[in-house]
Amino acid sequence: MLRIIIQSAFLTVLTLFGGLALGTAVGFWVFESLPGHSTLSPSALHISLAALPAFAGFWGGSAVWGILMGRMAGSAETRRMALAGMLGFAPITLVLGIGLSAVEPFVIEQIGALFPIHRIFTLMFAPSAFLIAGLSAWALGRGLRSKALAWKLLWQVSGAAALAFLVVNLVMEFSGWVVGGPNAAERYTMLTVMFLGNFGTALAGGALLGVMLTPLAQSTHTASRSPV
Description:
Blueprint: H1 2-33, H2 44-72, H3 78-111, H4 117-143, H5 147-174, H6 189-225
Helix pairs in contact: 1-2, 1-6, 2-3, 2-6, 3-4, 4-5, 4-6, 5-6
C-alpha cells in the first residue's frame, strides 16, 4: 500500500507540475530565441508564441496524468482517460487562476480592512484547491464509467487536498512566512506559500487517488481470471 501511495503521489506531481514546468521552460526559451524580443515591451505575437509551449505542457501533462491514473484503476481506454485528465484539471485551473487574479485587488481593497491579508489568502485559495482536486478526481471517475465512483472521488479527494493546503499554509505561517507580512514582497512569500500549498495538495490528492483506484484494477484482474 505504501508503494501505491508514493507512486500515485509522485506521478501526480510529476505530470501536473512537470508538464507545466517543462512547457514554461520551453516557452521561455522560445521567447528568448525570437528575433527582436523585448521583456520591457513584448509584442503580442511574441507572447503568444511563447505561451503555446506552456499551454501544450499544461494540457499534455493533464492528459498523461489521466492515462496513468486510469492504468492504476485497470483501464485500457487511453484516449478516454486522457480526455478525462485534461477536461477535469485544466479548465477549472485556468478559470480559477484567471478569476482569482481578477478579483484579488477588489477583495483586498474591500475586505482587507476587516481581515488580515494572510487570512484572505487562505479563504481564497483553500476552496480553490478543493474545487480543482475535486473536479479533477470526479472527471477521472466519469472516465472510468462510474458515476458513483466519480462522486466518491470528488468529495474524498477534494477534502484531502484542501486539508493539505491548509496544513502547509499554517506551517508556513508559523514558520514566519506570512502572506502580506513583513518583507513578504522581498521574499516572494505569496508565491512560495502558494507553490508549496499546491504541491502538498497534489501529493495528498494523488496519494488518495492511488489508494482508491488501485483496488479497481485488482478486482478487474481477479474477475478476468475467474472461470466462466
